[in-house]
């Protein structure tokens, strides 16, 4: 194959077949995908969760991952937030003519490693190559499907007054990493994306604690925006304790210099858990037993004081409203 992606690779002809067999199937192949049918034949039963997502992150390579691993992690996590075991994915690539073939292989190889770690199969896909300038390097679209294993499933409208609000770890890591890499910023301490598949931890959590009301991953818009969505959907107030918020010193320092708020920065390997307060300690025990939940902590409580609002209790004991993200703080972070 050429050392760069050519328009011919998206033509559906011989070059396309070589790209599929020598690159995509090499890293993503499985019994179903290898059949190269127009659609996948799957066995599903009961209630399923399905999610779709598109990935346009800039840059496509960053500390802690690349657009390929991010596409898998983001899709797997969205399905798992419904109390589901992710099973299958589809993946479509829109590739800019001239993308180095070595870069495409790194991206697809990272996806292969990520789906194996998550225990998910990519069962259908598509590749389009567009003229130079029509897209920026590569965009990836995915769909994920999984089996819901709890009833009722966690949902953003199920939070209740008295519920504890937990976060699985530090916030803002991914957003600051993308900004720093894009702008060539040299932070004194290494900042790395938290991008990871959370499904194994989440499945363990809901199996042991089916009482969980809400699971959400605070990606675009960050923690504050996600909590606002939950508060609005459930008609409750989220009282957030500023002193309890887990932020790495290097992230806090970077945000201070750049005038950013970690509460509004994207995360790609963390989740919010809202559940009855009496189960909070058990949930934290389960989360902390997993490396991806080692920094889990309680950060707030749901009340009926200001329905639909998020209130931050500051270090000094004051209170201020946290709104949803206004505008675009960091474009193309996922």
From TrEMBL:
GO terms for biological process: protein maturation. Residues 38-146 form the PurM-like N-terminal domain. Residues 160-311 form the PurM-like C-terminal domain. InterPro entries: HypE, PurM-like_C_dom, PurM-like_C_sf, PurM-like_N, PurM-like_N_sf. Belongs to the HypE family. NCBIfam families: hypE (TIGR02124). This is Hydrogenase expression/formation protein HypE. The lineage of its organism: Bacteria, Pseudomonadati, Thermodesulfobacteriota, Desulfovibrionia, Desulfovibrionales.
């Amino acid at each position: 194959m050429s050392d760069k992606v050519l328009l011919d690779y998206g033509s559906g002809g011989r070059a396309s077949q070589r790209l599929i067999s020598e690159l995509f199937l090499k890293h993503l192949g499985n019994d179903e995908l290898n059949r190269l049918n127009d659609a996948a034949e799957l066995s599903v039963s009961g209630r399923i969760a399905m999610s779709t997502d598109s990935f346009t992150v800039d840059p496509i390579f960053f500390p802690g991952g690349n657009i390929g691993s991010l596409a898998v992690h983001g899709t797997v996590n969205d399905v798992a937030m419904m109390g589901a075991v992710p099973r299958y994915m589809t993946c479509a690539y829109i590739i800019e003519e001239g993308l180095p073939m070595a870069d495409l292989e790194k991206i697809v190889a990272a996806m292969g490693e990520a789906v194996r770690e998550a225990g998910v199969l990519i069962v259908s896909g598509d590749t389009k190559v567009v003229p130079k300038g029509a897209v920026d390097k590569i965009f990836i679209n995915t769909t994920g499907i999984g089996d819901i294993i709890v009833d009722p499933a966690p949902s953003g409208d199920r939070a209740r007054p008295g519920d504890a609000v937990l976060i699985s770890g530090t916030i803002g890591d991914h957003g600051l990493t993308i900004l720093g890499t894009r702008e060539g910023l040299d932070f004194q301490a290494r900042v790395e994306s938290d991008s990871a598949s959370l499904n194994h931890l989440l499945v363990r959590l809901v199996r042991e604690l089916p009482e969980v009301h809400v699971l959400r991953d605070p990606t675009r818009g960050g923690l504050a925006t996600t909590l606002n969505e939950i508060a609005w959907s459930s008609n409750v107030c989220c009282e957030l304790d500023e002193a309890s918020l887990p932020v790495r010193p290097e992230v806090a320092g970077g945000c201070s210099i750049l005038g950013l708020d970690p509460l509004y920065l994207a995360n790609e390997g963390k989740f919010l858990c809202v559940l009855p307060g009496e189960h909070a300690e058990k949930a934290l025990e389960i989360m902390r037993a997993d490396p991806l939940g080692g920094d889990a902590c309680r950060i707030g409580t749901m009340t009926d004081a200001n329905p639909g609002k998020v209130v931050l209790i500051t270090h000094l004991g004051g209170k201020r409203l946290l709104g949803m993200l206004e505008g675009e703080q960091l474009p193309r972070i996922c």
